[in-house]
Amino acid sequence: xxxxxxPTQSVQQTSRxxxxxxxxxxxxxxxxxxxxxxxxxxxxxxxxxxxxxFLLAGVALLPFAWLSQQRKxxxxxxxxxxxxxxxLAGLLLSAxxxxxxxxxxxxxxxxxxxxxxxxVVLIPIIEMIFLKKTPRLWIWLAAMLATLGLFLLSxxxxxxxxxxxxxxxxxxxxxxxxxxxxGHLVTSLGAFQIAxxxxxxxxxxxLGLGLLFEADQAVSLLSAGWAILYAGLISVxxxxxxxxxxxxxxxxxxxxxxxxxxxxxxxxxxxxFLQEYLTGVQILGCxxxxxxxxxxxxxxxxxxxxxxxxxx
Length: 312
Hints:
This protein is mainly α. The protein has helices at about 1-40, 45-70, 80-105, 110-115, 120-130, 135-155, 165-185, 190-215, 225-245, 250-260, 260-275, 280-295.
């Protein structure tokens, strides 16, 4: 019996490895997009920029979503509950992006990066309290290491709290809820359906907020066309869609730790393209985050349970 289970376990581990590589690729893509967004942020409306890039990604993925839907039988096609689930994903995405951008007006980029990254520890806490899921011990340790590394990388070991930090903390809560909700949606819906739907919702909400609060900055989008193309098609269209594919296998807590590596790649690309050099403390933070990421993948090594079954 044990021998017959080995091929199944091997297939599961291979599937998990592919999912983790997809999520790590997302971190690389988002890290590169950070450089692009930094380049245009000082002269571009945040809400209008988000609206444009998410709408672009949503429209680009609509044909894939339509083809995916056509391949399904009538019984499998989306119903009203599925559509409401996608809309909720888009609203959570909108709230996280809006609060993050609003908080950046009243705090530093370092504080914003660290506090936003707290969703790494918020996810297992939310799952434990509300979903009655108990993450394994090494997931807690990995989350703590990722948070400590993010603190060292983002702040250099010194954190000065500001008014906008509360907005960033609220945003981190919505990012956590978004990752958890995506983990739920992928069990019943196709990745392209979720992706295109949530992008269009987020784009419309962001565009509405932009026209309401930053309409006078609409002309700034003309000079940011190249950044909108990259951030829309690559960061959102490819990055967030790969996140959904990865979360079909990887649990939300594991996914969050891998996605937090965005900060490391953002620092790396910032060093390469923006000449933003890292201090010794920040380099240490990168190493600590890497340790947390490796610990989160402990189930892929011999002697650890696979951790592939989702607890209900």
